């Protein structure tokens, strides 16, 4: 039976979904394994078949399992998962933390996405978007000085740039990218003074976008990623050459 560690706002189906999802990410159920049958899961979680069935349907929609008649519910390899799903991102980090391979992939993804997105934002950002970006930066600066929470402000800063790009696909990545960045930021903030070190680079990026300077925006984004890489690996206790 599930204990009441989950938020009271979560439904029974969400609780079962999270527990099985975490178990899959942790390797309790490995690719090719068959999940326990519905009666066994009902007994384990003390919920009805309807709750269990809906949770399994959600896992299937995320690519984590494949329900086959006369076979059962087969766990799928990570290559089949929707790796941009915010819940999967959270389950992976909760299950095994962030290892070297995952950290490298996070940084590589940012190198691919962030610099061209910054260029687009510098070219297309509306006055309202520039004001929102400046407000997010100022919230980060206040947080560095002890007034407020740094990570939510940092996430707003990067989400604003994605939105300001004007590209519908980049805009649609906001939820997934925020989940990915949250993992990176939480680790980076373990390094003493990490936010303070990166703050001037965020300001440079903000100013470049405000001025519509695409080259400067791209350069600032690359510098910020370089600093983020250093902070991330330092937070993980891994030495790298910058």
Describe what this molecule looks like in 3D.
It is a single chain. The protein is mostly helical and 242 residues long. It has helices at 12-25, 38-45, 49-61, 86-96, 100-124, 127-144, 150-164, 168-172, 174-188, 194-211, 214-235, and strands at residues 65-68, 72-75. The chain folds into 2 domains: 12-80, Arc Repressor Mutant, subunit A; 98-235, Four Helix Bundle (Hemerythrin (Met), subunit A). It is built from 11 helices and 2 strands. A two-stranded antiparallel sheet has the order 1-2. β1 and β2 (72-75) form a beta hairpin. The radius of gyration is 21 Å and the shape is elongated. 31% of the residues are buried. Residues 1-8 have low confidence and may be disordered.
Keywords:
mainly alpha; 2 domains; elongated; Arc Repressor Mutant, subunit A; 242 residues; Four Helix Bundle (Hemerythrin (Met), subunit A); two-stranded antiparallel ribbon
């Amino acid at each position: 039976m599930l204990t009441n560690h989950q938020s009271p706002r979560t439904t029974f189906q969400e609780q079962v979904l999270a527990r099985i999802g975490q178990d899959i990410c942790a390797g309790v159920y490995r690719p090719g394994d068959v999940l326990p049958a519905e009666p066994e899961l009902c007994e384990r979680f003390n919920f009805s078949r309807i709750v269990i069935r809906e949770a399994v349907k959600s896992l299937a929609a995320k690519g984590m399992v494949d329900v086959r008649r006369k076979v059962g519910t087969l766990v799928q390899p990570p290559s089949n998962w929707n790796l941009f799903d915010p819940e999967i991102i959270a389950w992976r980090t909760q299950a095994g933390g962030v290892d070297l391979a995952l950290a490298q992939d996070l940084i590589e993804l940012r190198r691919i996405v962030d610099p061209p997105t910054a260029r687009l934002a510098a070219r297309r950002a509306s006055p309202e978007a520039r004001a929102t970006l400046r407000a997010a930066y100022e919230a980060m600066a206040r947080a560095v000085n002890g007034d407020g929470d740094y990570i939510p402000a940092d996430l707003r800063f990067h989400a604003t740039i994605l939105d300001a790009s004007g590209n519908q696909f980049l805009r649609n990545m906001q939820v997934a990218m925020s989940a990915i960045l949250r993992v990176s930021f939480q680790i980076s903030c373990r390094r003493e003074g990490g936010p303070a070190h990166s703050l001037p680079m965020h300001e440079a990026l903000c100013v470049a976008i405000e001025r519509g300077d695409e080259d400067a925006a791209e350069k600032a984004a690359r510098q910020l990623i370089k600093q983020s890489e250093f902070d991330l690996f330092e937070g993980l206790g891994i030495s790298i050459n910058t």
